[in-house]
Fold these 2 entries.
Entry 1:
Amino acid sequence: MIAEVSFPIALNRTFYYRIPERLTGLMKPGLRIVASFAGRERVAGYVTAVLEEKDADLSALPSLKEITEAVDSEPVFPPEKLGEIVSYMASRWYCEAPVVLGNFLALIPDGPVLPAPERVSVAVFENPEFSEKIKKFLDAEDKTAALVFNDRKESENLTAAAAYALSKGLRCLFLVPDIPSAIALYKSFLNGALAEETALWHSRLTKKRKRELWNHVYAGEKRIVAGTKSSVFLPFLAKTLIIMADHGNEMYRQFDQKPYYNTRALAMKLAGIFGHKILLAGNPPDAELYHLHLNGGLELLDEGGTGKIRYEMVDMRKNPETAVSPELNEAVKRAMAAGRKAYVIASSRGFSPRSFCAKCYWMKRCGKCNSLMHIFEDEEGARFYRCSYCSHKEEYSASCGKCGNQLMVAKGFGVQRIFKELKKMYPEKRILKFDGDDVKKSVNETEKIITGIMDGNFDVLLGTAIILDSFLVREAGTVAFAEMYHKNSADFRLNEKILQNIMKASALLGYGDSELVIQSHEPESFSFLDFADYRKFLEEELDLRKTFSYPPFSFMARVEFISADPVSLKDFSNSFIESLRDEARLSELNIIEHRYPYKLKFVKRLSKYSHSNTFKIGKDAYGPFLAFIAGLKPPKKTKISVLTDL
């Protein structure tokens, strides 16, 4: 007998191994095994198929190695379902299937895993004010996917939904976009009856702790996981409710390493394959989800909590030198005078997100990777540059690097700049700052800051958009966006993202005299916020998307060629573009639109050059295109990177 084995390598292929006689009756698809591979004596592999020797093409193999041992007696994951999700991820996000498989298998304990025990559910639900719409969805046998939004009691209703799911015998994977949200959510469960049932999961846990939690989840000892995006790979095999808070948050997109998945799409696919329920929450539907709803694939649960957005737009062209306008200053004062909190959201970390010459418009870029550099200040107030891409630091200079004039301007308001102004305005008040730089501190330090926020130990909370989290913060008297941009963006989802952020902010406002303030240097660009009904906004948005073939009416991908040799990269890029000038080829590959520069442009980052092309491909017809990209033969030392599902 022959076993077809997959190893966690970046190659789309499997390997044949002979099954020793002692394992013949045991071997089946889905088992983990140990065998010698690539010069190493003991490497963990995964059996994808078991074949009779006559059914395997062994003509190119002079001899076959034997499997050393089987790790499991039964598959840990159902092989058919795991195979289906691996195939989906590999094809949709252009990744080698063994790499995808490795994400599911990486944290399984080294030894045998016992079958997960059946567990009798315990009725722990005690919340008579729980949302009737969510309860009705959870009770319905024929409803599998829903989106709840416009909910002023979001955190209470979602934690109650988790408790209700457990009382019905389900488990709960509770997804949040970032570590602060995960910690805040976990703390909210620690104060209730489900403390012993709940686990915290995020990327900064040790590998040992992750393995322990994997075991707890598999055995049903931890039936609720409050986790960031990688928790989708945990073994929720029994019937589960997946709750995804702040479903439109960009932090759910995996960019750091393959597979470059979209957590929302993956969670919805997992729910479909394993028979789970999924409840998206937070923002109103985006255009893709609204299109899914119109086609019967998603139920909308509008709690009606925010209604029409009420806001004050402040034209910052009248106050170009200050980050806190007189209007914002007064709004913050009114909140504090009433004994209420004020939240101020900055557009970026640091002191200023841009630095350019007022004479020649030269902009400061990173000496290592050519990305734009932000201005930061140290504890003594001395400025320095830090790269937004690679975090490289450089000394600050007021001199232009191109024309030499002392006319470098710090443009835009980062957290540090706004913090200095707020401290000067309200020296006796508690101004608390929280942004991505605080998250990068030790987990203990981050937890202390989060505890202070949840306990309300501040008068004004200043941060980036991560503070717009209903698990982290509570009702406010004033919420303000210190600087909101709109123009000169190629992001076709920009209006949608702005509307969602503002509706998140609106949901945090209390009733009565609560205020939402938006500061902008381009206030005329935000007329779309005046829609009385999000449905009208989304219907017009879908009409535009259809006209210009944007998602959900197409599948978008960016193909990037990367090399240290600019000459060979240019030749390869030219030949690639020429190969796509034929209309028949474009039709064969289902390419609707191919965007590339009229003149080839190359970006240099970290000693490498790159050239990218963006494609719109027929919806659900991306297979031939991705197969074509996989078949390209780039020059030596040239890498092809593909980011799909844009």
Entry 2:
Amino acid sequence: ASVIPRQIHDQFNSGKVNKAQEFEGLLLGQPVPHLLVPRPGDTSSQAPYSRYLLTGPGKTSPKSSVLDQVGKWVKLTGSPVYRNNLTVIAARSAEAIDPPSGAVKPDAGKSLGEFSLLGEIVDSKCYPGVMKPGQTKTHRSCAIRCISGGVPPVFFVYNQQGDNLYLLLVDRQNQAVNSRILDKVADPIRITGEVVQYGDMFVLKADPESYELVTQ
């Protein structure tokens, strides 16, 4: 299918950067490093957690002292950047803490099926608001530096109806694709792959060798 899944369409706004804050949640390493933060109030909903992507303070992945805490509940300090449902934290530190009582086990991901989507590869740190514009060829060199440094790549998708969405990119084996997509950043690309939903986070699984450059 080439249409945008209904539950993930129209996710666009201009983005915002905040000062450093503290977050408590479960630090996960797959499909990309991210923090699972319990939502306040009713946790019986389909998405009792928010999922925040993690980067380092600069154009890098989180530092090793943060990634050493993967699989643990942590108190994480960092600066959040967000655009609608996409929140990225530039992590400074992470300290292990006791898990909260009654913590819900995170879901393993739900496949939404195969889709053929047209869009642009952007970096997940600048696109939400660190740089403006955080997309198109104007931002290509910066996006390449971010993605090559370990910042998770995002596929920004749009269509003629004006719908916008973003999906994290991994290969069919759920592994990082950063080093294999640098020559495709900021160009119009068609990717056909499996869309997997992890709560409020969406992942597009496809091998970079299958990405198609779309000529205008």
